[in-house]
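Support request from a user on the community tier.

User writes: "When I paste my structure tokens into the form, the page sometimes reloads and wipes my input. The last time it worked, I copied everything first. Here is what I submitted, just in case something in the input itself triggers the reload:"
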């Protein structure tokens, strides 16, 4: 096997990672690869983490145990965020080394001031000396994107592009980042069972993998899913010839690497996958040119999707309450295809809360929801227009209440609409809880808990604040869980609060690196987080941190000129 060295192999420096050569592990009925990764900290200490990846023994020939490709890709986002260089005593495929060091890394770093140059130090192997995979795969996660890919690729007219296998990889989305923590094993079992049933229904074999990758090196899956997913694909690089990665897609189809460390990688996914592709393994971003609603409508008559579609952030079945479930149900309602998915969702719950869901979404401005609202208007939905009227009445009542004009009339309107408007319920909770009357305070707390149970973000944050004033352990535990759930779903205020808790260490274990991670995420949209991040960076005093602080200062000045309201 031809091996050459593109850079000198050096002993790992402080603040770097050493990927040791992996080895095959066998214990029926699975086979896998295990690898030790040494982390060299700034203080000179060394921590070793073991990463394993397992599949059914019948797929053992597809496992890659002789290259570091999978580990480097999986840890790329992690190392960029934490400024770790990467050294490996296992070689990397020549083409991937070139694609990473000459194309992808420069693009990521030059387009995000938060990132600095990292080095990859390893030997390389010419790709024409490597084994070639035979099969074509895609995810069986059962979301809208994966269902669309399955629908369009399972029976593709060209045999060379037709799916031969499905796969399900446990590399990050099943744990805390998607809220499955408390009933983890039960939820994961449901996910695997549903994917198997889907594969049986469409007549394709399924490659199921398991790994401790996301636990050994925790990352926020919402921001690292592209890399952790490709970790699993490259671990099976001798099985796959082509792989379709179901893209989240965007209505605008704007691709950019700008500020890539704090945004969903789907914004640059097609370019990144093209760069990560080699002559031995072709990666496709599938469905990027279709909006989420276009995909949803396309699969609404597809029997496997009607039965097995799954979008939930919180459990192994569709809860119908979380943000993703509501987003899908709202879109289905707009397009008139709700009943097509009666096997996948509890439509009785949705219909019982239909007005509340629609009113709640009227104020949203993300591109997916805006597209659904456009469809409602084009279809001249009487219910939608009635909900707009409710929303306007609630807004007017809140304005009157804030200006102390006709308070009784405003309260009457909010009481009238509290079951149809989370904002009305939340405003009543705030009003009554600020009262000196104990009966009204109790009523306010009841409304607040109901708003929290409705998963209304403002009510959740207010309830977190209420719990923070309690001293019992149960309240503190509930507060941390709620805050973490909201932070991993992208809420900037909860990210800010979580960062402060991690920094202080008085409620949860102190972790400065994690605190700065959440603080940087929050600072991308939340003004108080910008101030705290600026102060922490100035306190550090390093040239890199001071340079970042100056950029944060410029962003604060620009933000203050716009006087933009903080989200969440």
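"...and here is what came back when it finally went through:"
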């Amino acid at each position: 096997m031809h091996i050459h060295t593109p850079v000198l192999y050096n002993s790992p420096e402080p603040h770097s990672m050493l990927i040791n050569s992996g080895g095959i592990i066998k214990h029926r009925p699975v086979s896998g690869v295990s690898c030790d990764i040494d982390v060299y900290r700034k203080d000179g200490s060394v921590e070793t983490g073991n990463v394993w990846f397992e599949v059914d023994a019948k797929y053992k020939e597809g496992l890659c145990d002789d290259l570091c490709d999978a580990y480097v890709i999986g840890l790329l986002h992690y190392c960029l965020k934490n400024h770790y260089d990467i050294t490996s005593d296992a070689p990397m495929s020549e083409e991937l080394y070139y694609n990473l060091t000459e194309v992808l890394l420069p693009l990521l770093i030059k387009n995000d001031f938060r990132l600095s140059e990292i080095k990859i130090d390893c030997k390389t192997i010419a790709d024409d000396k490597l084994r070639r995979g035979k099969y074509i795969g895609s995810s069986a996660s059962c979301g809208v994107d994966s269902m669309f890919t399955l629908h369009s690729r399972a029976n593709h007219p060209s045999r060379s592009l037709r799916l031969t296998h499905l796969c399900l990889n446990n590399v990050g989305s099943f744990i805390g980042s998607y809220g499955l923590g408390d009933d983890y094993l039960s939820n994961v079992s449901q996910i695997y069972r549903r994917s198997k049933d889907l594969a049986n229904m469409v007549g394709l074999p399924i490659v199921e993998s398991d790994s401790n990758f996301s636990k050994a090196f925790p990352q926020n899956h919402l921001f690292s899913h592209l890399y952790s997913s490709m970790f699993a694909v490259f671990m099976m690089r001798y099985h796959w010839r082509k792989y379709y990665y179901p893209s989240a897609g965007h209505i605008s189809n704007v691709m950019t690497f700008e500020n890539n460390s704090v945004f969903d990688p789907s914004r640059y996914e097609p370019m990144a996958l093209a760069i990560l592709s080699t002559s031995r393994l072709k990666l496709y971003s599938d469905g990027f040119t279709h909006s989420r609603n276009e995909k949803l409508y396309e699969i609404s008559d597809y029997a496997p999707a009607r039965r097995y579609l799954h979008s939930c952030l919180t459990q192994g079945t569709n809860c119908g309450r979380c943000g993703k479930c509501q987003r899908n149900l709202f879109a289905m309602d707009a397009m008139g295809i709700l009943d097509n998915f009666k096997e996948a969702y509890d439509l009785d719950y949705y219909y019982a809360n239909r007005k509340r869901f629609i009113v709640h979404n009227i104020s949203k401005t993300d591109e997916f929801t805006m597209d659904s609202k456009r469809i409602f208007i084009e279809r001249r939905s009487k219910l939608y227009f009635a909900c707009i009227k409710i929303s306007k009445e609630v807004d007017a009542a809140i304005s009157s209440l804030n200006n102390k004009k006709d308070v009784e009339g405003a309260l009457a309107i909010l009481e009238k609409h509290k079951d149809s408007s989370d904002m009305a319920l939340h405003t009543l909770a705030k009003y009554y809880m600020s009262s000196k009357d104990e009966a009204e305070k109790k009523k306010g707390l009841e409304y607040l808990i109901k708003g929290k149970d409705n998963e209304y973000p403002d009510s959740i944050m207010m309830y977190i604040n209420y719990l923070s004033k309690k001293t019992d352990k149960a309240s503190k535990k509930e507060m941390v869980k709620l805050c973490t759930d909201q932070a991993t779903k992208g809420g900037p205020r909860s990210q800010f609060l979580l960062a402060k808790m991690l920094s202080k260490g008085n409620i949860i274990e102190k972790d400065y690196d994690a605190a700065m991670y959440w603080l940087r995420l929050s600072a991308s949209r939340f003004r108080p987080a910008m101030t705290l991040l600026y102060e922490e960076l100035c306190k550090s005093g390093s040239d890199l941190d001071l340079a970042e602080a100056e950029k944060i200062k410029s962003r604060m000045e620009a933000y203050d000129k716009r006087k933009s309201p903080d989200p969440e």
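Agent notes: The reload is a front-end session timeout and is unrelated to the input. The longest strand covers residues 30-40. Residues 457-562 form one domain. Escalated to web team.
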